[in-house]
């Protein structure tokens, strides 16, 4: 069995979103139909996340597992041959089973585009044609209240029964204006349903002077779906980029990965940087162990000369460390360390 990581771009205007629908046409269905024609078997694909109906993507990432063996470029050409011209595969890579398109996401970047000039029929499929002039400085001021870690209950439509924790972290929001076109770029680990479009709608409201920039703070604090019901049109939103962290070991319960900014460790460092330090034998070396889905911290992993220690923070962490031990040893050997070194689980 092989796993492939694919990058796809698409215009979402003709589709009912990424995810397969009981009624309607999805982008996922188009790609899976192409794979069925190539392999003769139903092949499920898993993406970094869902995009809503009408939303575009310059870089959506998905993966699929198959017994069929083919060179990467041939996969790309074969899939594209069976796709409509508004969906296009940009890249296909054979990856290890440590990669997961959804669970290994470090951050995503979305852009919301607004045309505040005359209506433009040529950009209507990827820009919101705003008929009213906007106060760009007010929008920038309002965006500052969204950056950081907040409870976004007021600015999304994900059911609380499915997503009881509606706290998310927005790493940055960048606004640019050029010749009547505004681009709002959001970067964050994860986004709830309609969250980016609802944030964009509030920035537009600030630009129209319907709310004050500081009202964003009050909307977030209210934690109420009644405070901000507007949704910016889907056509203006594009998934621009998906970035992944490195994985040392992975199973259904958890993972050992590079530690990131925000983890309870001294400083951020990618696994590749950690591997480089391993080559240079600069110790101690740090990784973390988390749950696979919510990335709840389970343990710290510290590697010193001739020994690795896993400091579990709960019983679940200790059990998961035992489960991942074989993979972790394989990874140690793969990057040139002693796979048989003592691994102490504390």
Automatic annotation (TrEMBL):
MF GO annotations: RNA binding; tRNA pseudouridine(38-40) synthase activity
Gene3D superfamilies, A to Z: Pseudouridine synthase I, catalytic domain, C-terminal subdomain, Pseudouridine synthase I, catalytic domain, N-terminal subdomain
Its EC number(s): 5.4.99.12
Pseudouridine synthase I TruA alpha/beta domain boundaries: 8-104, 142-244
Claim: Ribosomal protein is one of the keywords in the record: no
InterPro entries in UniProt: PsdUridine_synth_cat_dom_sf, PsdUridine_synth_TruA, PsdUridine_synth_TruA_a/b_dom, PsdUridine_synth_TruA_C, TruA/RsuA/RluB/E/F_N
Residues reported in the UniProt entry to bind substrate: 110
Signal peptide annotation: none
Keywords: Isomerase, tRNA processing
Taxonomy, superkingdom: Bacteria
Residues annotated as catalytic: 52
CDD domains: PseudoU_synth_EcTruA
This protein's record includes keyword Amino-acid biosynthesis: no
UniProt record, GO biological process: tRNA pseudouridine synthesis
Catalyzed reaction equations: uridine(38/39/40) in tRNA = pseudouridine(38/39/40) in tRNA
Assembly, per entry: Homodimer.
Function: Formation of pseudouridine at positions 38, 39 and 40 in the anticodon stem and loop of transfer RNAs.
Stated family: Belongs to the tRNA pseudouridine synthase TruA family.
Annotated protein name in UniProt: tRNA pseudouridine synthase A
């Amino acid at each position: 069995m092989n796993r492939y990581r694919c990058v796809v771009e698409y215009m979402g205007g003709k589709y009912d979103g990424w995810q397969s629908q009981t009624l309607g046409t999805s982008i996922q269905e188009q790609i899976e139909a192409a794979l069925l024609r190539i392999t003769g078997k139903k092949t499920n694909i898993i993406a970094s996340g869902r995009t809503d109906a009408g939303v575009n993507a310059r870089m959506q990432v998905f993966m699929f597992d198959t017994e069929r063996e083919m060179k990467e470029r041939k996969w790309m050409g074969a899939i594209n041959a069976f796709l409509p011209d508004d969906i296009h595969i940009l890249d296909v890579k054979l990856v290890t089973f440590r990669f997961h398109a959804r669970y290994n996401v470090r951050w995503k970047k979305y852009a919301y585009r607004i045309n505040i000039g005359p209506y433009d029929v040529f950009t209507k499929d990827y820009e919101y044609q705003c008929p009213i002039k906007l106060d760009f400085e007010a929008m920038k001021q309002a965006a500052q209240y969204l950056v950081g870690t907040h409870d976004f209950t007021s600015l999304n439509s994900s059911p609380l029964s499915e997503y009881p924790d509606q706290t998310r972290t927005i790493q940055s929001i960048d606004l640019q204006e050029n010749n009547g076109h505004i681009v709002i770029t959001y970067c964050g680990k994860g986004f709830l349903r309609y969250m980016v479009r609802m944030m964009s709608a509030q920035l537009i409201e600030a630009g129209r002077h319907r709310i004050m920039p500081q009202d964003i703070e009050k909307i977030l604090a209210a934690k109420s779906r009644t405070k901000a019901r507007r949704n910016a049109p889907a056509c203006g939103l594009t998934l621009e980029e998906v970035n992944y962290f490195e994985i040392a070991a992975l199973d259904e319960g958890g993972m050992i990965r590079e530690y990131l900014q925000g983890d309870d460790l001294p400083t951020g460092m990618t696994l590749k940087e950690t591997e480089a330090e391993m080559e240079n034998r600069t110790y101690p070396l740090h990784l973390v162990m988390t749950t696979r889905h919510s990335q709840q911290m389970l343990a710290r992993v510290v590697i010193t000369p001739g020994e690795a220690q896993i400091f579990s923070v709960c019983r679940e962490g200790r059990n998961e460390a035992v489960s991942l031990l074989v993979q972790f040893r394989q990874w140690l050997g793969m990057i040139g360390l002693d796979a048989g070194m003592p691994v102490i689980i504390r």
